[in-house]
Amino acid sequence: MREILGRRLQRLRDRLKFPRAASRTAVEAGAGAAPSLLDAALTCATVRQWPVLPGVGRDGADSRRCACPDPECVVPGAHPFDPGLLAATTDARMVAWWWGERPAAPVLLATGGAAPCAVSLPAKAAARAVVRLDAQGMRLGPIVATPTRWSLLVAPYSLERLGELLYAKDHVPSSLRFHGEGGYLLLPPSPASGGGQVRWEREPEPRQPGSHALWLPEVEAVVDALVEASSGAPGGGSRLAY
After folding, report:
1. CA spacing 20 to 30 A to 209: which of 67, 78, 136, 236?
2. Would you state the pLDDT for residue 34?
3. What is the pTM of this model?
4. What's the rounded Cα separation, in Å, for the pair 130 and 115?
5. 20-24 long-range CB contacts below 8 Å, 24 or more apart?
6. Any alpha helices (H) in the chain, and if so which ranges?
7. How many Å from the N-terminal Cα to the C-terminal Cα in the chain?
């Protein structure tokens, strides 16, 4: 699968005339992640048809601070700013131009609509929950991991549908976060906001062999399973409250 994606990306670079020499120069200049960030953005946009845009990134003078105007930014570098979220696209030329101008920019997925959504929870709790769900035979989709949180990708859902789902629950762990319509998600191999790097804990898999469509679970199944895992833990839900 990776070899096929690699060949497709190279053909795309050739059509867009994105020079290899420029990528090598960026690596030698210290932006070692630049080519892989561009590749990741192009894969999402053109192969998976996920709308993406560059994150704001870090302040060049202080790598610990966000490049946005907010000195107290709680997710430094890992959010949209300029361009805004509505600019997210699957257009290969726009993606190539963005990362050509800003090769170290994080890759953001605009969630919702026809794109995947996600449910995220703290990393330690997520790792334990995923082991339990695997043991129960539940099929999970792609999982995006940072040092602090894991995000389980799910099929697109509306805010109304999510509201009905949560209203029907007696208890939902407060540590769960929902990345739905109008939201965004940081994708690999972007730098994580709290340090470290975003990675695939579980990479996207085709729905069927030879298909480009990815298999994604429904949000109800994932939330039900996580609530059950939490409620079955000692303390009545403390398992996910990290």
Report:
1. 136
2. 40
3. 0.81
4. 23
5. 22/100
6. 2-16, 20-28, 34-42, 92-101, 123-135, 159-167, 219-231
7. 36
